[in-house]
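Page 42, continued from yesterday. The earlier attempt failed because a stray header line got pasted into the input along with the sequence. Redoing it now with the clean sequence only.
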Amino acid sequence: MSTSIYFDYAAATPLAPEARSAMEPYFSEKFYNTSALYLSAKEVARDVAAARAAIASWFGTRPTEVVFTAGGTEANNLAIQGVMDQYPEANIIVSAIEHEAVLQPAEKYPHKIAPVNSQGLIDLDQLGQLIDEQTALVSIMYANNEIGTIQPIRAVAQMIARIRDERKKAGNNTPLYLHTDACQAANYLDLHVSRLGVDLMTTNAGKIYGPKQCGALFVRAGISLNPQILGGGQERGIRSGTENVANIVGFAAALDLVQSTRENEIQRLKSLQNLFFDLLEQKLPSAIINGSRKTRLPNNIHVTFPGVDNERLMMSLDERGILCATGSACSASSDEPSHVLTAIGLSDADAQSSLRFSLGRGTTEADIHRVIDELIAVIG
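This time it went through. Structure tokens are written below.
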């Protein structure tokens, strides 16, 4: 078999050389605990502070508003439980296509599910109708991990701001915060929190060519969170635990890389994405592209092959050197159809006949032609 071609960048990205190089000193000569009082440890603490400031600069915020976590899942849990634990009578609203790291913690509290249309876009009018006087938190992902749909987060934020003003006039002191899971968005979209209008934002180094098990939660100044991990009081008491300095420094290097080069990479990937779509339509006309063609991540291709079992197709492609996914890697072992695909109106049969191909920095035009050829060979 020829060399495998990777089409699952939405699940995991390889560590960028820039991130690896930044991390290396902290595995050996700069291994110190940042809480120690001697000078060598204080130097490492300054390195963490510099990484935090670098990440904050891309968020357009202050370093004190960046909280490091062990990945996007923990950051989502901290955002949701950290707010909702304080308001036992309040409810939370999440979209129907959120990652399980948002849906499952939301289920612990009174919650409502905001529907999406057939392209996976949130319906702003319906979302507004769901927000009541006891809603404390709305969580809408920036870009979907399965079908790539980009949500109008700024418009959601503007609507929430209007509702906040109405509450103040009515004497309702229940807070109303907006959280967004930006794990898939960080490679390609603007992360400036003031332009987005969000109060809390999750990011994940493992999706942006940084180290796995490292994430960050933006927490707007003035928002109180109940900590979910107690101990040494690190991260201003919001998230205890000795800082993983190597991962934090690698995260900052990776984020700087993807954000500083994203405009060129968007254009390159958009061209490859359009080539994939065009070849599908020409050579596999029965295939159905899921999600929005306009408001979509440039690296996402999600396709239904009617009547084809997606797991068998994925394994056949794997044998031919094409690595892709049946859906979210975090729920790949489930026999249930994807909740994202059922939310956009796909039948169970079509949901279980769908594959996700996600492109990345290593994807070439030749790779696109090869995957189409292999699909034709397998499907006929």
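Notes: The mean pLDDT is 95.
Reminder to self: strip header lines before submitting.
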